[in-house]
UniProtKB/TrEMBL annotation:
Lineage: Bacteria, Pseudomonadati, Verrucomicrobiota, Opitutia, Puniceicoccales
Highest taxon above the source species: Bacteria
InterPro entries per record: TraB/PrgY/GumN_fam, YbaP-like
CDD domains: Tiki
Parts forming coiled coils: none
Protein name in the entry: TraB/GumN family protein
Length: 365
């Protein structure tokens, strides 16, 4: 709870979050704005469990505010993608023995035989890691629900909203095929040695995302692709390449929700930090209801107190006033309204002869 003492004729101006409740936890959602436009950035995961739905209410509220959706890449071109995978799944020269140890290859041969797949020594490391991940973790684990991006894509299509993409599907797949052999072998061994552990790790990662634990997200973002911003296929490099598109959205009359993997939101090359560096206002939005009053001013001629109020989108807020803070029954409802994503100015009758006025924004369900 925060109390602002205003040493003017209005007495004590009262500002609080949920009146006696601690600060709300943030969501994996940012609002980015300049003088006359704004967008939303949502850090997502690309696969979920059925129990992870429904998503946080604040995400749906933000989506209701927008005119369009942008996601990482269009992966609906299945034939082109399948052909691309086939073209890049094999060595043009050489075999897996030049990148994987003999013991790993022996384990792989056993797995292929037991799983009913045909082993080829010309499979690329990234393909082997992806195949095992698909068969042993994704198909066997509880990750059967659509990811966040797919969920919003389906909703955008239902609403007839425009859908745009930050990069081509080929760039997204190049990111996958650029997996270093040592990382691919590490992934293969982890799955072969303990498929359940891989499932547990993924469950844990989704749990951390659900709790909006940005620090955990940053910790779990592997650096294998992150040779730094110089590498256009690294997370940092891709973020930098997306900036021009994000600037265009901020210059558009339409308001967009941009949904990308949570890994693109963390660190000094995360999208929120890059945009803040460029001078945009970047706010990480809270999940829980909140109301914040600010900038109280008295219009003596009109006998009005003006104050700004802003809060969690979609929440219903009561503006209450009191002349005696010591009396909990003295609060009276002055107005009730629903927050949008814009700051609102409210005007409350106020007489200079009053000794004090107390104002609060209180969230109601």
């Amino acid at each position: 709870m925060r109390i602002y003492n205003v040493l003017t004729v209005i007495g004590l101006f009262f500002c609080m979050r949920l009146f006696g409740v601690i600060e709300p936890e943030p969501a994996m959602l940012w609002r980015v704005s300049d003088a006359d436009s704004q967008i939303y950035l949502l850090g997502s995961v690309h696969l979920l469990r059925p129990t992870d739905y429904p998503l946080r209410e604040i995400y749906a509220v933000a989506f209701d505010q927008v005119d369009g959706l942008a996601i990482e890449a269009d992966v609906s071109q299945e034939n082109a993608i399948s052909n691309y995978v086939q073209e890049n799944a094999f060595y043009s020269s050489g075999t897996i023995s030049q990148d994987f140890s003999l013991s790993t290859i022996t384990k792989l041969r056993t797995w292929f035989r037991q799983s009913g797949y045909q082993f080829s020594s010309q499979y690329q490391p990234w393909f082997l890691a992806t195949l095992l991940l698909e068969v042993e973790v994704l198909s066997e684990g509880p990750f059967t629900a659509s990811g966040v991006d797919v969920s919003f894509l389906e909703q955008a299509n239902d609403r007839g909203l425009p859908v745009e993409y930050l990069e081509s599907w080929q760039v997204a797949l190049d990111y996958l095929t650029s997996m270093p052999p040592e990382i691919a072998e590490e992934t293969v061994l982890e799955i072969l040695n303990s498929g359940n552990q891989a499932i547990n790790d993924l469950n844990f990662l989704i749990d951390q995302w659900s709790q909006s634990d940005l620090a955990a997200m940053e910790y779990y973002i592997d650096e294998e692709y992150n040779g730094g911003p110089q590498n256009p296929l690294s997370i940092a490099g891709r973020n930098l390449s997306w900036l021009s598109a994000v600037r265009d959205y901020l210059g558009d009359d339409r308001k967009f929700l941009i949904v990308v993997g949570a890994g693109h939101m963390v660190g000094e090359y995360g999208l929120p930090q890059l945009l803040e560096n460029e001078g945009y206002k970047v706010e990480r939005l809270p999940e829980e209801p909140w109301a914040e009053l600010s900038n109280p001013q008295v219009d003596a001629q009109a006998n009005i107190l003006r104050t700004n109020i802003q809060g969690a989108m979609g929440r219903v807020c009561k503006i209450e006033t009191s002349a005696d803070l010591s009396d909990p029954n003295s609060w009276e409802v002055f107005d009730t309204f629903t927050f949008t994503d814009e700051q609102t100015t409210i005007e409350i009758p106020y007489s200079r002869t009053d000794d004090a006025m107390f104002v609060r924004g209180k969230i109601v369900e």
